[in-house]
Amino acid sequence: MAGAVHRIRHFLSEEEWAFAPHETPALPGSPGSPDHPIQRRVAYGTISVLLGLTGGLGNALVAANTATLQGALGLDPAQIAWLPTVYVMTNISINLLLIKFRQQFGLRPFTLIFLFIYAVLTFAHLFVLDFTSAIFVRAASGMAGAALTTLGLYYMMQALPASWRLKALVIGLGIPQCATPLARLFSPELLAMSQWRTLYLFELGLALLSLASVAWLRLPPTIRQKAFEPLDFVTFTLFAVSMALISAVLGLGRIVWWTNAPWIGWALVTAIPLLAAALIIEHGRSNPLINTRWLASTDILRFAVVTIMARIVLSEQNTAAVGMLTLFGQNNDQLGTFFAIIFVASVAGVLVSAITLDLTRLTQPVILAIGLVAVAAWLDSSSTSLTRAPQLYFTQALIAFSATLFFGPALLFGMSRALSQGSGHVISFLALFGIVNSLGGLGGAALLGSYQQMRERAHSVELVQTIDPTDPIVAQRIQLGASAVSRTVGDPALRQAEGGALLAQATSREANVLAYNDVFQLIAVLAAGTFSYLLFLLIRRRLRERRMESSA
To answer: Quick check: 305 and 330 in contact, CB under 8 A?
Structure first.
């Protein structure tokens, strides 16, 4: 009988649906919470995993295979850097619009529209091999990814009982975070089939599967309400352009170098006034899209700073560890076990975060995660030119575990603050959370990558200054290098020159290793500072609570 009722309800509109008290959506735009049979719960859970991985892999597959795509598409380093950057550009901006869109029209139409556009562009890119089409595919992927992440979250909330809804929220948010190690794990097999086209075929298949799944099994209806106002689109335009320019600066700054490209300065000069104009407009509105007064409160500013710091230190894995292993000539083909361990640790972090979730203790998992990163980064800072992936299994597993352990409690911490002020603050908080996570990730890679390059130059100068050709040890090393090429180079002078070139290569490698160690140390210091600050706030809050209890 219950199944028949649900099938009848399945085709009703929101206006025709009679919500039971426990089925009422928590917020306009979010689905209701009816009871489901176990088969339907399994289907919702399966689709949630599919949607989450589709949204996450849209950017992860490109980020994990930039070298291959650069060669296949004939791009230079700056051009290939645009692909993941454009994804972030559209993903940040569309999130702001998406929140009100689903309140007024529902999330499903938005998802179907952009999944269809994404699938069409990906299909077209298989036949049109150029930089412009690749940019359009990444832009569509960013917009579709924003909707898929939210939709996957809602599907997971339908898959678990009502008492586990917050745990479902953590799991739904954690699934896309597992996409990056998964992409690095299986992309070598995809590339072996038909190079870059297989990656895009795989993306196309995921998009079509997600499109069919969303069309096949709908979410329960929601409560809709008029949400958009004319000024929303003015704010969105100003905000989107400013965020796109800032994303471009962060994504390409260390590639073209910050002081060598005039457009970086012009982009910032344009972005800052546009963002300021958007905030000024919102500050004077009675029903703002972004609640500037609440966002400027001490708690929320503190939350934003801590989240940005966390995202920066969590960039250690993709920027520093993988970068150092790439320096040693190891690529995705040779790092299967490494990325398998990282993937398992990421999944473990999601599950532990969900199982141990406690709304009264949301700060503790965040403190633990950042503390683990500090320990792991400090252990990695003693790397040498003989370090390989097996020596990093434990520390990188800790960081992968910490990254997914951090995400859910951090979101719920801010969300609880937003809901305590009213449902209207949720839009502002989700916009803030999307900005600090996306820009924090880009900014982390930009900061750590730039720092590594600067330290490499400094170490190179130091090492070169210590090399004296008259030193017997140096002369012996050059002679050993010359002997290594003696079978192929007959001229003694050329052999000696080759020996010197090999010594220069070894010097450059050592300078890079020392620079990566400096990066690990910087991450450890930043993580330790953030850990100490959060611990101070936690202790101070506990002391205040005790004083209040004693005075009462």
So the answer is: no
Tokens standing for residue 3: 């199944």
**Residues 6+ positions from 115 with CB-CB distance below 8 Å:** 144, 147, 148, 207, 210, 211, 214
Place of tokens 């560890």: 321
DSSP structural state of residue 31: B
Q: Please tell me the distance from the alpha carbon of residue 486 to that of residue 502, in angstroms, as a whole number.
A: 13
Q: Mutual orientation of helices 424-466 and 230-256 as an angle, nearest 10°? A: 10
The least confident of 35-44, 433-442, 507-516 is 433-442
In this structure, the number of other CB atoms found within 10 A of the CB of residue 422 comes to 10
Asked whether the beta carbons of 382 and 524 are under 8 A apart, the reply is no
One-letter amino acid for residue 437 of the chain: N
List all residues 6 or more positions away from 71 whose beta carbon is below 8 Å from its beta carbon. none
Name residues whose C-beta falls within 8 Å of residue 369's C-beta, 6 or more positions apart in sequence: 310, 402, 403, 405, 406
Q: Residue 424 in contact with residue 291, Cβ under 8 Å?
A: yes
Q: Does residue 373 contact residue 349 with C-beta atoms inside 8 Å?
A: no
Return the higher-pLDDT residue of 309 and 266: 266
Provide the CB-side half-sphere exposure for 277 (13 A, CA): 18
Summarised one tens digit per residue, pLDDT across range 181-207 is: 888 888 777 777 666 778 878 888 888
Q: pTM, whole model, 2 decimals?
A: 0.86
* 8 A C-beta contact, residue 176 and residue 52: yes
DSSP reduced 3-state for 428: helix
CA angle 42, 48, 53 (to 5 degrees): 135
The neighbour count for residue 104, using CB atoms within 10 Å, is 13
Digit-coded pLDDT (tens) for 328-382: 888 777 888 898 999 999 999 989 988 888 878 888 888 898 999 999 999 999 8
CA dist., res. 142 & res. 83, Å (int)? 10
Nearest to 36 by CA among 148, 157, 151, 169: 157
Q: How far apart are CA 316 and CA 336, in angstroms?
A: 19
DSSP per position, 431-445? HHHHHHHHHHHHHHH
Query: Which tokens is 198 given?
Result: 């297989």
